[in-house]
Amino acid sequence: MNAGASERPGIGVGLGLAALGRPAYINSGRAADLGEHRGVEELRARAGAVLDAAYAAGVRYLDVARSYGRAEEFLAGWLAKHPEIHDVTIGSKWGYRYVGEWRLDAAVHEVKDHSLAAFHEQLAETAALLGPRLGVYHVHSATLDTGVLDDADLHRELGKLRDRGVRVGISTSGPRQAEAVRKALAVEVAGAPLFTSIQSTWNILEPSAGPALAEAAAAGARVIVKEAVANGRLAPGSPDTVPAAVTLAAELDLPLDQLAIAAALAQPWTWCVLSGAVDPAQVASNAAASAVTLPSGVLAQLSELAEEPGAYWSARTRRAWA
């Protein structure tokens, strides 16, 4: 049920443009949300409208990535149209390249590359679009198997970026997120922590990274939650919503997305929860979760919905780009 906004340690709801910068993505319901309107200029206009709505709703963290198609370009264009806006933090990510060529039926949509050469190449591309507005730069999907958390040469270059005033971090995915987070927290350059922003998947279906994220916050890192609505499984009207979550949301008289995002905001280590909205109404509903205080005991009920992490991630990898 809705109540007055409670004091939160972070900035509340942010906006990610993963679903707006390219025509295909793995979120449920894209056919209903976007239909056939997925041309570059159509998505540029849609991204602008969503950014306008997000800013009006109080969103002050904006998240893009090199692999999100034209998301950095769309964001840069929106910022150029709003020179009066100085109170947003901009985060981007490097480590994947978008190779989908603006096709829904591409065999491959993105390719991972965590090499030092890729970092230099993609940082230059990001800087060309976002320039001094870039505040946070994450390694995109830092996992234990790519070597990115062991590469001392890369760490030294990331340290130079940190020393220029850009917060350096990682994003994580997969059933071993907690291990990646803990390994990242141990990396130091010139005697100081390198990775001080952690963007991880956490939601009521897959909360296994929670203890590691609490450790990250305790160590002074900002924790950004992504995929709080589980790629649409915790969003109203999605074709694959979770029935038990739908029932609980109805009992609380809350939209399902607000229940999911409020649960993420209720974690004491959360700095920001990203909305992946693709229209102004969705972003307004997502942002309204900042004013939701969940009744006592609801978080315990939600914990019963957690799935086995391996099964959750296995199912996620099978989601079709659409």
UniProtKB/TrEMBL annotation:
Residues 47-306 form the NADP-dependent oxidoreductase domain. It comes from the Bacteria. Transmembrane segments: none annotated. This is Aldo/keto reductase.
